[in-house]
Design a protein that fits this description.
The chain is mostly helical and 204 residues long. The protein is built from 9 helices and 3 strands; from the N terminus they run H-E-H-E-H-H-E-H-H-H-H-H. Strand 1, helix 2 and strand 2 form a beta-alpha-beta unit. The longest helix has 27 residues.
């Protein structure tokens, strides 16, 4: 794996290059510790400018752990179910801190940590994952590619368009004429939507 990651992180061939790495750690055990293989990855795999994000997956399983712990403390099952979400958040927070402390001492620690829930469902919302991934990328062209191709959440397109065009223009004191501003903003939206917007602008 080390050779694959290093080779594809450093290659100049765009179609073979890794742009971001999602390293998944399942949260199916409230006593989860970092494995030797995980330590090895973050100590030996230099990814250069390729950001590595640790995704804490299957965090839903901590709800069952939370119910068990609450029952052990004397809560009835129904009451434990009501308090499970808050208890699970506390368990996840402790696990996350332990993982951060463990991986933070590695030679090439991850840049981001993101807990995920409900990702096994058909209606899973990947907006947060897409947002974190785009923010982790250091190349604005790649950020634009990630955001403009996703079509599940238009609010994300709007957020990045405003942040990358309007806010940065104000911060850098760059003056944009109306046409250039429109083009710059539209670049952050899906191609099909841009076509529709341009059509409506012509009609009106």
């Amino acid at each position: 794996m080390r050779e694959f990651v290093v080779e594809h992180a450093m290659t100049k061939m765009l179609e073979k290059r890794i742009h971001a790495i999602w390293y998944c750690i399942p949260m199916t055990d409230n006593h989860r510790t970092i494995l030797a293989a995980e330590k090895m990855f973050f100590n030996e795999c230099e990814t250069g400018n390729v950001p590595v994000m640790v995704l804490l997956t299957k965090t839903d399983a901590l709800n069952f752990v939370a119910i068990e712990q609450l029952q052990e403390r004397g809560f009835a099952f129904e009451e434990a179910k009501k308090k499970a979400a808050e208890e699970a958040r506390d368990i996840l927070h402790k696990l996350l801190e332990n993982i951060k402390n463990s991986l933070g001492t590695c030679k090439f620690p991850p840049q981001y940590y993101l807990p995920l829930t409900g990702m096994h469902e058909e209606t899973a919302d990947c907006t947060v994952l897409m947002k974190y991934t785009a923010n982790a990328l250091t190349n604005e062209g790649l950020q634009n590619l990630v955001i403009s191709t996703q079509q599940n959440n238009i609010a994300l397109n709007i957020e990045f368009a405003v942040k990358k065009v309007i806010e940065e223009s104000l911060w850098k004191k760059i003056s944009l004429n109306k046409k250039k501003l429109q083009v710059s903003l539209l670049l952050w939206f899906p191609f099909e939507l841009v076509q529709w917007i341009l059509f409506m602008m012509q009609v009106s």
